[in-house]
């Protein structure tokens, strides 16, 4: 698409979630990396001693570890300007009426309780560092489904936390996992008992409001044998000149025969660094699906992973990235096959425009013993104009003979013939381009719950508006 | 991260990671030995100055972390071989047979640094074609050599390129003047004793609208002591020219190899480049296509047939730097025994390269559960008017296909061999010249024979026969 000298979508000015609330907080730590802040978080949360020690250990590990030299540009990320802990309210409310008025207004504007009424089994909402609201349908609660903020999870189920916390993503995994382990606050704890099917999705909503804030949500999900659940998270933030940092760690355990889907609609404003580690351990005959869409943020580095531990385990990743002006989406996925008969599939769709850069970075690894494993990776990239950039960096590694691995990637721009055809049917060029883009990401969008599919299409249209003349 | 540090720890051999300890005296001796002109000696000295300031690459560096080659004790290698000349060895007759039989337009065979054969059809000589040992070209065509040598791969590229620029004692120059069509395939051979550390280079310059085909072979006998070979292959395809370059590498299993190969293709130039790697214990190749003129095209075809503990780590780059350029890369590996193959490639399309078509394919056939394969096919696209894609497939033989052939009465081992043959065919058919194709096939079949005999896991049997009727080579 030639820019035609027409104004292009600038991002922030048309970002609908760019509003901000006054910054009135119960507690706000001093900015920068300080051991005292780690201690303060732990003591404010009255945590068990082992967690405090683990945080401090992770803090030391973070300091000792070099910044990653690959991926996106992290040179401008200044930890000294980041506020690592902001506590907006006392505790996670279970009744929407009790949520502080300003925060409530924010989430009302984002449509959270409304969505909940319609189709959700449970909702959690995180504002800055803390979950401000958490609720679940009573029927599920009776079946033994647990859906709590991570802080409450640790308080109410210390044994489970002691046993599983940091086992899927240890703090030594990477620099940002260490950072998260040191400063973690908020996130969800989900437990689904054996055989229980949670038919409607559980949702968490993440909001950054203050300037230069760091959000380190930590989620632990355990889906017990034969159970199933779908968890959806959405993220937004206002637009500031100072960059914010969101660095979550998501740990998921999918036990034998269970099924888990984790969906992310990431729509941070373009001043947010989004550096997330998501990983699932997948047991025998279990299924893990990551649906990951990255539309927002300045830089996203996020590679959801499935460790296929049990025989016949299946992992799937659907990754969608849209990089506009000033954005770099470095996304992808990892599949580690450790057991016989495991299978995986990664589908990546990326769109770049107006100087944006999308990169697919992925790993498929077949370890000795994982005989009969199958893996298929398909990466498609669409370039909308000549300033945009796309990269593909896959790694495929096998130490097994009886495997079937396929990887395909294509890069293309919108076909002039397609556009001509649509325009000959009376569509404007912008409508035509938007339609082609919608068709391009269709395989992903159709996997979303309907409300999100509508939202996704709306977000894409917004990204596209004004992009052509 | 963890993997990198792990690698670094593995490297506890004190001899590893140290560059070979060269002295001024040794460097001076190389030039003196061949009586080369002062400017060439100066080039070696300059490369030596550079080399002294260089360190071995870090095993954590992106280009080196997938190979075990840096753990090889380069610093302990015998450099004495360099100072010794005229050591006559017998070049096996099988290798000396002209590649395209009677159609061969010229043949150049080196026995390490010594010239064994040097022929070129009179027609081509009259047309100004130069096809001669590099050391002779240095004396006979100093202007050409000074202008082009190192212009594609300078000594500054890395420590191995610097080392090659100091040490090289064998080499070939092929120059085809403007408009000249060399309509018979040329054949060059470097037979080496397979001792110590040595370096060779090949420079091919195909002037405007000229055309040439070359089959280049390197081979050495099986020996027990460790040895290393460093290659530099520089290719320049001028506007409208066509180069067909094919290479078979059959070093003995005692050899490790570090190769830098690069071709620059100008406007409307066409390059067909194929290579078959059968030999060497560990290979690290940097192979680059640079399409710098509008409408330049290149086809790159690679084949690795590995067994025993062989490793091949091949880094390819397809750089599209001008509009309407086309690159088509297909690499196939057959892995037996406990061999390992790593193929990392990058297709890069610069903003000015509109209308580009780039393809990168990797097919890996694993015939043993001890073999390991890794593929990293990358794309970096900075222009929107492109068609770029890559594809990777890794797997063993399809049991259904084996079953089908067996149901037709073909024994299992033979069925498998047929399927492997079919797999290789996909690469071999990209070699246009029938005789060159057959010649390259010979080296491959020798290796595959062991599989037919059901000896896939057996390293030693393979090592005994690098090429048919080359027994005379066994020292």
SSE arrangement:
The complex is a heterodimer of chains A (469) and B (475).
Chain A: E1 27-28, H1 35-44, H2 49-64, E2 86-87, H3 101-110, H4 112-119, E3 122-127, E4 130-136, H5 138-142, E5 146-149, H6 150-156, H7 158-164, H8 175-183, E6 188-192, E7 202-207, E8 214-215, E9 218-223, E10 228-236, E11 244-246, E12 249-254, E13 259-266, E14 272-282, E15 287-294, E16 299-302, E17 305-308, E18 314-323, E19 328-337, E20 343-352, E21 357-366, E22 373-383, E23 389-398, E24 403-413, H9 416-424, H10 429-445, H11 450-464
Parallel strand pairs in A: 3-7, 6-9, 7-10, 8-11, 9-12, 10-13, 11-14, 12-14, 13-15, 14-16, 14-17, 15-18, 16-19, 17-19, 18-20, 19-21, 20-22, 21-23, 22-24
Antiparallel strand pairs in A: 1-2, 3-4, 5-6
Helix pairs in contact in A: 1-2, 2-8, 6-7, 9-10, 10-11
Chain B: H1 2-10, H2 24-34, H3 38-52, H4 80-83, H5 93-96, E1 106-111, E2 114-120, H6 122-126, E3 130-133, H7 134-140, H8 142-148, H9 159-167, E4 170-176, E5 186-191, E6 197-206, E7 211-219, E8 227-237, E9 242-250, E10 255-265, E11 270-277, E12 282-291, E13 297-306, E14 311-320, E15 326-335, E16 340-349, E17 356-366, E18 372-381, E19 386-395, H10 399-407, H11 412-428, H12 434-452, H13 459-463
Parallel strand pairs in B: 1-5, 4-6, 5-7, 6-8, 7-9, 8-10, 9-11, 10-12, 11-13, 12-14, 13-15, 14-16, 15-17, 16-18, 17-19
Antiparallel strand pairs in B: 1-2, 3-4
Q: What is the helix fraction of residues of chain A, given as a range?
A: 10-25%
3D shape of chain A: globular
Tell me what portion of residues of chain A adopts beta-strand conformation: 35-45%
Taking pLDDT < 50 over at least 5 consecutive residues as the criterion, the unreliable ranges of chain B are 1-12, 454-475
């Amino acid at each position: 698409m030639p820019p035609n000298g027409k104004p292009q979508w600038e991002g922030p000015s048309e970002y609908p979630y760019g509003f901000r609330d006054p910054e009135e907080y119960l507690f706000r730590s001093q900015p920068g990396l300080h051991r005292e802040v780690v201690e303060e978080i732990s003591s404010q949360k009255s945590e068990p001693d082992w967690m405090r020690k683990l945080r401090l250990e992770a803090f030391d590990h973070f300091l000792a570890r070099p910044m990653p030299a690959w991926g996106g540009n992290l040179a401008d990320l200044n930890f000294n300007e980041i506020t690592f802990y902001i506590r907006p309210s006392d505790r996670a409310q279970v009744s929407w009426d009790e949520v502080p008025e300003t925060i409530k207004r924010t989430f009302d504007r984002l449509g959270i309780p409304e969505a909940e009424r319609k189709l959700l089994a449970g909702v959690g909402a995180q504002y800055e560092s803390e979950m401000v609201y958490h609720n679940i349908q009573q029927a599920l609660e009776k079946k033994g489904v647990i859906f709590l903020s991570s802080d409450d999870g640790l308080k109410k189920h210390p044994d489970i936390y002691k046993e599983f916390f940091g086992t899927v993503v240890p703090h030594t995994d990477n620099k940002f996992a260490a950072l998260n382990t040191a400063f973690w606050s908020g996130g969800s704890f989900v437990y689904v008992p054996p055989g229980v099917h949670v038919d409607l999705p559980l949702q968490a909503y993440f909001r950054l409001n203050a300037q230069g804030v760091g959000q380190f949500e930590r989620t632990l999900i355990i889906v017990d044998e034969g159970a199933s659940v779908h968890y959806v998270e959405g993220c937004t933030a206002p637009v500031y000149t100072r960059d914010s940092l969101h660095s979550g760690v998501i740990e998921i355990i999918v036990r034998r025969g269970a099924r888990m889907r984790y969906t992310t609609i990431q729509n941070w404003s373009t001043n947010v660094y989004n550096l997330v580690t998501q990983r699932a351990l997948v047991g025998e005959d279990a299924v893990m699906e990551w649906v990951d869409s990255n539309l927002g943020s300045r830089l996203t580095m996020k590679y959801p992973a499935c460790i296929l531990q049990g025989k016949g385990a299946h992992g799937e990743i659907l990754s969608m990235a849209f990089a506009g002006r000033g954005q770099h989406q470095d996304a992808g996925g990892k599949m580690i096959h450790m057991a016989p008969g495991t299978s995986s599939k990664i589908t990546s769709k990326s769109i770049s425009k107006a100087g944006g850069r999308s990169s697919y970075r992925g790993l498929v690894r077949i370890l000795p013993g994982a005989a009969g494993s199958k893996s298929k990776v398909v990466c498609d990239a669409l370039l909308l104009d000549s300033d945009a950039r796309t990269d593909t960096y896959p790694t495929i590694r096998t130490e097994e003979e009886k495997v079937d691995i396929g990887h395909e990637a294509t890069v293309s721009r919108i076909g002039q013939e397609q556009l001509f055809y649509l325009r000959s049917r009376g569509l404007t060029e912008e409508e035509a381009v938007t339609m082609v883009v919608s068709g391009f990401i269709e395989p992903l969008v159709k996997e979303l719950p309907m409300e999100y599919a509508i939202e996704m299409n709306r977000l894409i249209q917004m990204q596209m508006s004004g992009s052509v003349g | 991260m963890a993997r990198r540090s792990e690698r670094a720890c593995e490297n506890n051999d004190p001899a590893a990671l140290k560059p070979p300890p060269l002295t001024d005296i040794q460097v001076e001796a190389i030039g003196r030995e061949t009586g080369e002109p002062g400017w060439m000696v100066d080039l070696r000295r300059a490369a030596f100055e550079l080399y002294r300031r260089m360190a071995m690459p870090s095993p954590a560096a992106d280009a080196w972390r997938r190979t075990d080659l840096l753990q090889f004790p380069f610093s302990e290698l015998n450099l004495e071989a360099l100072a010794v000349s005229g050591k006559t060895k017998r070049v096996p007759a099988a290798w000396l047979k002209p590649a395209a039989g009677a159609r061969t337009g010229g043949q150049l065979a080196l026995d390490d640094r010594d010239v064994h054969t040097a022929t070129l059809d009179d027609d081509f000589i009259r047309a100004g074609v130069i096809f001669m040992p590099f050391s002779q070209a240095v004396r006979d065509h100093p202007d050409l050599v000074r202008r082009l040598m190192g212009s594609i791969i300078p000594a500054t590229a890395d420590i191995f390129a610097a080392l090659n620029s100091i040490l090289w004692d064998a080499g070939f120059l092929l120059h085809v003047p403007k408009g000249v069509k060399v309509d018979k395939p040329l054949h060059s051979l470097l037979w080496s004793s397979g001792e110590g550390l040595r370096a060779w280079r090949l420079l091919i310059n195909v002037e405007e609208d000229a055309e040439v085909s070359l089959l280049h072979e390197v081979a050495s006998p099986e020996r027990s002591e460790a040895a290393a070979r460093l290659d530099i292959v520089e290719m320049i395809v001028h506007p409208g020219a066509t180069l067909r370059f094919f290479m078979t590498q059959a070093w003995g299993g005692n050899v490790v190899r570090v190769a830098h190969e690069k071709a620059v293709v100008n406007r409307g130039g066409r390059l067909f480049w194929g290579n078959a790697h059968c030999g060497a214990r560990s290979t690290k190749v940097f192979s680059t296509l640079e399409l710098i003129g509008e409408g330049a095209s290149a086809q790159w075809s690679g084949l690795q047939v590995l067994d025993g503990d062989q490793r091949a780590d091949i880094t390819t780059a397809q750089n599209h730097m001008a509009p309407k350029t086309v690159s088509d890369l297909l690499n196939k590996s057959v892995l037996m025994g406990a061999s390992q193959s790593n193929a990392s490639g990058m297709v890069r399309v610069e903003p000015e390269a509109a209308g580009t078509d780039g393809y990168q394919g990797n097919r890996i056939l694993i015939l043993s559960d001890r073999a390991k394969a890794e593929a990293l096919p990358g794309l970096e696209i900075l222009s929107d008017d492109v068609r770029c894609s890559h594809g990777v497939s890794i797997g063993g033989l399809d049991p259904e296909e084996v079953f089908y052939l067996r149901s037709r009465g073909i024994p299992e081992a033979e069925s498998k061999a047929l399927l492997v043959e079919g797999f290789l065919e996909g690469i071999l058919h990209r070699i246009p010249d029938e005789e060159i194709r057959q010649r390259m096939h010979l080296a491959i079949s020798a290796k595959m024979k062991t599989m037919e005999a059901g000896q896939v896991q057996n390293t030693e049997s393979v090592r005994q026969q690098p090429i048919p009727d080359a027994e005379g080579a066994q020292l």
